[in-house]
């Protein structure tokens, strides 16, 4: 995720405050939305060869890192063994979300400097381990596309029920697409009022071209007023989930 510049650009996307399910003041409907997303992901992964999920977006500042963290948390709440890996080797934020050090991580693991045992933050909450990015490497795409990364994911799949990968925006860099042969699929995140159909369509086309699988689309930052429950909390989230590539595209067009 991009860092906040000292001089604000009025044309730049506005970043929402990152809030996770660990926040005691999180709105009830947010918690329920993630539980629903968890259920749908469980069904979607039932026919896949592994349970490794890459979370990405079309462009920056659309909330994909917060969504990745919350998916990992809600899966861990079922007592499943979950690993969250910050694969955004350009602008990582998972160490900030979980308030852990980032002096070592995926980059130093892949570089042979540290072992997995040395870089993993165990039990950040019950059943959830986190591997941060580590120092920014000079070759992020090549590192994620390497045979070492493929072998690492294969080995980790033997020990974890779910692995969540926070990956960079698809329309900005190719990093997420280099992982398609090692994962179950990609979950795209879109932000209400900021993401465009054209950008999402471009990201979906890129995943299809790489022979990747789209697990669904998460739309966040939706201000829901009125309706059955009449929620009026400041922070609003809504999750549109559909199986398969065509369904994902259709669910956005129907909004």
Task: Describe the sheet with the most strands.
Answer: 7 strands, mixed
**Share in helix:** 25-40%
Alpha-carbon distance between the termini?
Answer: 26 Å
The CATH homologous superfamily is called P-loop containing nucleotide triphosphate hydrolases
- What order do the strands of the largest sheet run in, or round the barrel if closed? 3-4-2-5-1-6-7
CATH topology: Rossmann fold
N-to-C order of helices and strands = HEHEHHHEEHHEEHEH
- The total strand number stands at 7
Q: What is the 3D form?
A: globular
Radius of gyration: 17 Å
Q: Give the CATH architecture.
A: 3-Layer(aba) Sandwich
Describe the protein.
There is one protein chain. This protein is of the alpha/beta class and 255 residues long. The chain has a single domain (39-253), classed as 3-Layer(aba) Sandwich (Rossmann fold), CATH 3.40.50.300. It has helices at 28-45, 64-76, 94-97, 106-110, 116-119, 140-145, 147-156, 197-209, 244-253; strands at residues 52-57, 82-86, 120-125, 128-131, 162-166, 185-191, 214-220. The chain has a seven-stranded mixed β-sheet with strand order 3-4-2-5-1-6-7, with helices on both faces. The two termini are 26 Å apart.
